[in-house]
What does this fold into?
Amino acid sequence: EVQLVESGGGLVQPGGSLRLSCAASGFAFSNYWMHWVRQAPGKGLMWVSRVNSDGSVTTYADSVKGRFTISRDNAKNTLYLQMQSLRVEETAVYYCARSTTTIFGVVFDYWGQGILVTVSS
Amino acid sequence: DIQMTQSPSSLSASVGARVTITCRASQPIARYLSWYQHKPGKAPNLLIYAASSLHSGVPSRFSGSGSGTDFTLTISSLQPEDFATYYCQETYSTPQTFGQGTKVEIK
It folds into this structure.
């Protein structure tokens, strides 16, 4: 059974840092691209970042570029999101997601249950 | 970035009702469109990809249609477990933008 379990969330002050982890199991982690998606309170889903299967290629939403860093450790089957200079508006539930490629683009076929990050003084 | 607009933002329907949610893209995206179901506190679930292909394990009462800029998700006979928020997502470009969501509530 595919499982994605996020951890590392919590309360952080504006301007602070936090590192999220996503432990993967039940599939060949090193074969898949992975993503982070977030949902602010009362808002919809927003894609944040992705990393390719070997960790050599990363992409970010413009709003987090230069402040967030996605990475992975395939030996540990774990995805990370290092977040710096956090803003109040980045309070959200953060989800990790596995993607797979279809004839019409990349879809997120498995998601974690999410972890809450609260940015507040 | 491509903008995705869903309508309605919310709807109330009874068990057994036929429900239709629409999603419009700000530019043509062929069939690069997915639909997700999301319940509070749970992981989102992929329902439909490539506009009309049913993801493995998804009940056949869910169907998708459309291409270009206009897309539809239909639930043929609403079940109690279908009350959730539904999101469309374009898979044509980066970032892969989601619609704002449609909340389906019990009538």
In short: Chain A has a mean pLDDT of 97.
